[in-house]
Predict the 3D structure of the following.
Amino acid sequence: MVEKIYTIPVNEAYESSCECPLCALHKKAEQDYLDYYLGPSLMEPDTRKITNKTGFCPDHMGKLNLAEQSKLGMGLMMHTHLKDFNEDICADIKAAAPGKASLLKGRSSDYKGKLNAIADRIDKRIASCPICEKIDYTLDRYIEVITYLFTHDSDFREKFGSGKAHCMPHVSRLLRAASKMSQNDAADFVTVLADCNSTAFTTLIDDVEWFTLKFDYRNSDKPWGNSKNAVQRGMRFLSGDRKEFDEK
Ligand SMILES: [Zn+2]
Ligand SMILES: [Zn+2]
């Protein structure tokens, strides 16, 4: 069985007029978690224990910063997070500096592995983010619900196949979920997913082409049709929904 707290938003997303239902669910989850960290949570010891260690990824740090709320909470988190990062990494960076090769010591390629290992640790720390983790967890639950409802609920199956396309990152995620379905269920699920996606792809290609043809003076009086925002829709289709892809 699947939990109601996940089935209701999934049904709503597939009934709404959004471009990709999973992008809509992602956006909602992200806003909920941003609001959570913009609230008093950064002052609470349990939350601080996590965020002191992880900080936030560049994308979510930017979004928290633009919201301009909870300045003290962010300041406190930043202070302890910087200290934690410094204590964890800085001495090791210095320790990774190779000793100079000399006649006595000779050359050693050990240092290459050490430098890459410390760089990997830094990259991992930069990317670590409780908001990303929570969104990821929630989207996994939504996707479990989607594959469950597809095989158990004929109304949902119809909604899923009613022409709504998914953006390519979410198609990839749904394909991974399909790899956990039984072979027969996966056959049905992937066929419907592929058909909706392929229709969306060709329509989008035509819309983007018409966008470019509108720059020809011979077409300047002809109607735009669905092409005015076709380039931004292409961006969202290829990369998922982002604020930067909004139409101006
Ligand atoms: Zn999407
Ligand atoms: Zn993040």
About this structure: The mean pLDDT is 91. The CA atoms of residues 164 and 196 lie 6 Å apart.
